[in-house]
Amino acid sequence: MDRLLFVASEAYPLIKTGGLADVAGSLPEVLRQKGMDVRLLLPAYQHVLESIDPPALVADMEVDGDALRILSTRLPGTKVDTWLLEHPLFSQRPGNPYHDSHGAPWPDNADRYMLLCRVAAAIATGEAGLDWRPDVLHCNDWHTGPAIALTHLREQRPRTVFTIHSLAHMGLFDRATFERLRLPQHFWSDSALEFYGQCSFIKGGLVYADYITTVSPTYATEICESPGGMGLEGLLSQRRDRLVGILNGIDSQVWNPASDPYLVQTYSQESVADKARNKAALQADLGLASLDDRPLVGLVGRLVEQKGLELILPVLADILACPVQLVILGTGEPRYEQQLKAAATVNPDAMAVVLAYDESLAHRIEAAADVFLMPSLFEPCGLNQLYSLRYGTLPLVRSVGGLADTVVDSNPHTLADGSATGFVFQRPDAAELLAALRRACALWYEQSVWRQVQLNAMSQDFSWQQSANRYLQLYNTATDS
Ligand code: ADP
Ligand code: GLC
């Protein structure tokens, strides 16, 4: 049986700030069910230790002079053996894993995630004193990039896979920080971790990994060119033969409208008319007018430029005038939060904005809305549009990254052949977004056509089965070579 060490900085339900946690919380369990012997390695954040039963001790370790412990727990809702790296840098840090309450990155993030990398590399190369070592080390995003670079220093090493969930975060630190981390000096090179005078953690994965994956086929193509590659397009196109796009799957138990415990009314393809009760409940909960003569548009996500806020804000009044009601759940940049909140105050019947991280409300919006808005400027995969499809909530997306790979625009042709699942616009342009929304509204009034598109959307299979098989194939290719 192949042994897999899967390393991430967050995994649902223990700790989540975005889609990475959804993936790290669901893919390892599917791989385990398919026969892999999996260990998930996560930092033991204070919040995690407070939310679980006392974990078992796996090992006391010393890594680079730092005493730490590896604890073992089960990822809740799965049978995945989860190893927690316990050290004060993680376990005595309340709040968000990456930043303080004002959104400023923790000043010692380089030290914190380098510790995770050193421990991952020690386990991977059999230098941690454990009686388990992996055949494959699979790391995710910048927090874990140097784990791959460190692992490749050893002759006796597992095969390595590095997944890019987003290139927007590269883990960039200055030269002084690099020196403080006491990495091998040859890592300070353009062909290693150095990136325009800084140390880039993500390059550890991109330069050294046996295989690089990213979370959709289209994003794999986009990052080999400018601007998608964000300055790394040269390196990525050089490594094109080792770069694979594998679409994310969704946890079809957590995101299932037929059994979702957060909903006032569960529903399935056979009872999709029942979805309306969720809309009525959400309108009441958020103080919106209880109207059933116009679509309800939902948006859940980080309120940052990536998510297309610059396309929404200039045409907010036109959006509401379609007419629609609009519900937004998210946290992010203060300027976006303030503008959205102000607009909701002026339009209390039509618009509600909740500036919070709220798992329950995210599910209720997916179930209640008619249209899900996701006009991202770039989107490596995107999970919310996949949840929306499953909930019969038609996604309105820009044709980019994983959104382009997963949503089929409704037009006469796709409506006729039954492939339409949502609404897609091309350019990052507010007028194009508005035109797509107007098309969506017009279709909403044709209730039987709308119902058919909902059923098309709900019958798409974005569960992990196929994508997990592709990871298994990749692990096999890597270990066979
Ligand atoms: P990204 O990882 O870029 O933020 P994704 O669409 O891949 O985007 O994943 C976002 C995940 O985070 C989804 O599961 C979404 O429901 C969740 N999410 C984002 N913001 C919030 C919020 N404010 N409250 C609850 N869930 C949220
Ligand atoms: C990142 C991306 C998002 C992707 C998620 C999980 O946060 O922004 O598009 O779905 O990772 O892979």
Describe the structure.
With 481 residues, this protein is of the alpha/beta class. It has two domains: 3-249 and 465-477, Glycogen Phosphorylase B (Rossmann fold, 3-Layer(aba) Sandwich), CATH 3.40.50.2000; 269-460, Rossmann fold (3-Layer(aba) Sandwich), CATH 3.40.50.2000. The chain contains 21 helices and 18 strands. The chain has helices at residues 19-24, 27-33, 46-51, 88-91, 109-124, 145-151, 175-180, 201-208, 217-222, 233-238, 275-286, 309-312, 316-320, 334-346, 359-368, 384-390, 401-406, 412-417, 430-444, 447-458, 465-480; strands spanning 3-7, 37-43, 56-63, 66-74, 81-86, 136-140, 159-164, 172-173, 194-195, 198-200, 211-214, 243-245, 296-300, 325-329, 351-354, 371-374, 394-398, 423-425. The strands form three sheets. Strands 3-4-5-2-1-6-7-11-12 form a nine-stranded mixed sheet, sandwiched between helices. A six-stranded parallel sheet has the order 15-14-13-16-17-18, with helices on both faces. The protein has a three-stranded antiparallel sheet with strand order 8-10-9. Helix 5 (109-124) crosses helix 6, helix 6 crosses helix 8 and helix 11 crosses helix 15 (359-368). Bound molecules: adenosine-5'-diphosphate and alpha-D-glucopyranose. Adenosine-5'-diphosphate binds at residues 18-19, 22, 300-302, 329-331, 357-359, 362, 381-384. Residues 18-20, 23, 165-166, 215, 248, 379-383, 402 line the site of alpha-D-glucopyranose.
